[in-house]
Amino acid sequence: MSPRAQKWVISGPPLGYLLIFFAIPTFIMVLASFRFAGEFGGLAPLVGTGNPDELSGLTFENYQRFFEDTIYLELFLKSFIYATVTTLLCLGVAYPLALMIARSDKRWRELLVLLVILPFWSNFLIRVYAWMIILGPQSGFARAVNGVLGTFGAEPIPLLYSPIAVIIGLVYVHLPFMVLPLYVNLEKHDPALLDAAQDLGAGAWQRFWKVTFPLSLPGVYAGAALVFIPALGIFAIPDILGGTDGILIGNVIKQQFLDARDWPFGSVLSMVLTVLAILFAGLAAWVARHQRI
Amino acid sequence: MKRLLAVLALLVVLPAMAKDDVLHLYNWNNYMSDDTIKRFEVSCKCKVKQSYYGSNDELLAKLQAGAKGYDVLIPTMNAVDALIKRKALLELDKSKLPNLKNVMPQYLNTTFDPDNKYSAPYAMSITMLGYNDKKIKELGLPTDSWALIFDPKLLEKIKGKVTVLDDQREVFVAALKYLGYSANETDDAKLKEAKETIRRAKPYWAAFNAQSYIKELTVGNIWVAHGYSNDIFQANLDAQAAKRGFNIVHLLPKEGASLSLDAMVVPKNAPRPDLAFQFINFMLDGQNSADLTNLIGSGNPNNEAMKFIKAEIKANRAVFPDAESAKKLEMLRDLNAKELRTLSRLWTEVKLK
Fold this sequence. Notes:
heterodimer, A: mainly alpha, MetI-like fold, B: seven-stranded mixed sheet, three-stranded parallel sheet, 16 helices, 44% helix
């Protein structure tokens, strides 16, 4: 077998998988976003049904509806802010943790990494429901928080069904996706570099900011992309933990497909989300490449 | 040798039989008593396999996306209507359904399915309010009207202790009813008025919750919930079982409410229509139908079931309303694509801020 053929044999299955389960559905979605909604959900037939009142064929109307007023753009902005806050908080929590794991004794490292992945062994929804109990008004946690607030004379605040609850849920669920790429990166750092920096008179703080952190940037970008993109489209967490104005763009997409039976408009929202996600991933990749040391 | 062959033959035949005789039921969660299923399995010598949906929209979307293999579905009448229009249902063979005569006449021959060509009434629920009797009595709030979740003056006392369904149609229907309009109103101005009513009340609500409000009522975190009569019944059972020291009480608003009649239908592509008809007739039997009401406190359209229903459930005027209140109950019709689009647009506005 020629090396060329070997390449195809090896890359064929994953390529085929991506083609069937990513490229084709995306293409269907693009097409759907230009069509009319069927009367009972689904899509209206492409060619005329003979009924002059019934619309068929292709249209830009769905995209017009998106840009007609600001409500959907506001939703995207809101989702964008939530995803950004989630990413930054994840980074803040995950970085020290990943650094600690990477610098710990070799015997413990695998166990510690295992502990990070451990939550994946139980269902995602169950873990989010668990937060409902932790944040609920009768929980010890909520009472402790409000007790502390009370000593400062503040009114008790509800933790559940609030933006705080949504952010906590988002950070909790996505944390491992930040820890793992960071750990993989930090673990490879050559300790000799830090020794050299110390010999040259750099303090602990300088060693971190001038050596460790710049070297870890590819890990930071990878983690940020892995957290930011799913956080941008999530709907289950705002559904379960969010209050009366907790919805994000993911909820509206789900609503279009289920409650509103408006697949074309759901596709439009989904397309815009995909384009934004690709832009962000591209940006992360570009920054990562140009930061290479 | 002969015996061995017989055993072998049985081994081959038995799984084949078991594989063949299965009724696939696509149902709401907790909408059938396990005892009833066992009795049906004995009587039909078949197995019942249930899978579940959480909303009519989910059911419709799933079928629209091409889901197959179900013998019986139990959607609400407006969804039955949509399925009929999609030509997705098999006509009922009335000769196999002698028990259809048990159904009260007011639940037959509805506009959704004239002559019950496709559907046989199963059970019903009313969308209403459920409240914590201890808390609401302490606060001295009125318990006869939708005002409890829409009037800011009343809501001030129960701020953050109220949830409403996470369902665009039901929330708008509640607001329309509160304003004195029909549940099936689609006039733009009136819908906008409903939206403003919802917007004014929303800051006092804790959440839109259709999934865990039973638990929240039971635990005492939420004092008033907009929900289905069956769920409120369940919440009260749970509160009693946990000895919480309060009751969860049904509140059927005087302005009226929406009634959901669920009916059994057979999809056109059902693998076993014969078992499906057998099952439907079985469920139209008085005792079997009463089992469900006794289990979950659902309303019951079956005349013969009445004598088997527990007295305390039959006496609950929110589950079995008197003639006066029954007149104010409306069944929701299926909205067309344009009406749905308007509604979901308003809903997005409500939810965003």
